[in-house]
Amino acid sequence: MIVETLLETLKILLIVFVLMIIVEFFELKYRDKIRKNITKKPLRQYTLSSLLGVTPGCFGAFFIVSSYAHGIVGFGALVAVMIATAGDEAFIMLAKIPGTALLIFFICLVLGIIAGFLADKFVKKIKLKISKPCEIKIHKEEELHGKSFFRHFFKKHVYGHIIKEHIPRLFIWLFFTMLIINFLMLRFDIGSILPQNKLALIFIAALVGIIPVSGPHIIFVLLFAQGLIPFSVLLVSSIVQDGHGLLPLLSYSVKDTFYVKIFNVLFGLGIGLILLAIGI
């Protein structure tokens, strides 16, 4: 189990590392254009985040988390991508229930945009203090061109910033979080303890969705494919869970991770209860 967890951690770490390099490169090289076309246009952030979120897998979520850490996108975009993403479970849905999967992707895309807008409004209304972005220092003009740019970028940014400051902390959070979860998953069979009551299933789907890895949520895909749970339960599971997408955020800000998860759980429960009330 330790070896499997270590390999899974290294796989995620490599993906996030590459994405952090890409994000930092573009933020350094095209700071003004990014601020003008993305950072200062919230609707574009919500739409981009939701589109990346509905892409199967956790790549889109990783990208938005990296962008959020650099201050390129805001809290609403972070909420949007986590609402929209279904992690690796998206592949299972496409294989087992392709028609329903496409419907869920579309619904989550729309809900992601709405949730992102509501989250930013809520943050401003209650003046919620979220973490400050990991700002990139302003550099001399000569450092942004030619060979000196790449030498500076790899020395100061890839090694001095990403590798020295972010990667060790990210590795520790990823490895030990997944190790604990994998251990618990070996000890408990979630599928065998699920009740038949639809309302209870809605709440359980939301609670299981809090687990920040792909895997536990597959049970809801399989139960729906067998006709054992309603669509509302599967949708709540898809809304609340993020696959591995939220794990990199833990290393950046535990507080923001908590805020995102609380918002997503409440939003998912609200949607699920509405659908259950109308018989879906």
Overall description:
The longest helix has 42 residues. α3 packs antiparallel against α4 and α5 crosses α13. The protein has one domain. The protein is mainly alpha-helical and 280 residues long. The radius of gyration is 19 Å and the shape is globular.
Structural class: mainly alpha
- Rg from C-alpha positions? 19 Å
Helix content: over 70%
- Low-pLDDT runs of 5+ residues are none
H and E string: HHHHHHHHHHHHH
Mean pLDDT, rounded to whole units?
A: 81
Features of the shown structure:
single chain, 280 residues, mainly alpha, globular
Write the topology of this structure.
Layout: H1 2-29, H2 31-39, H3 42-53, H4 59-69, H5 75-84, H6 89-96, H7 98-126, H8 146-187, H9 198-209, H10 218-225, H11 231-240, H12 247-252, H13 254-277
Helix pairs in contact: 1-4, 1-8, 3-4, 3-5, 3-7, 4-5, 5-7, 5-13, 6-7, 6-10, 9-11, 9-13, 11-13
Can you describe this structure in just a few lines?
The chain is an all-alpha fold. It has helices at 2-29, 31-39, 42-53, 59-69, 75-84, 89-96, 98-126, 146-187, 198-209, 218-225, 231-240, 247-252, 254-277. The protein is built from 13 helices and no strands.
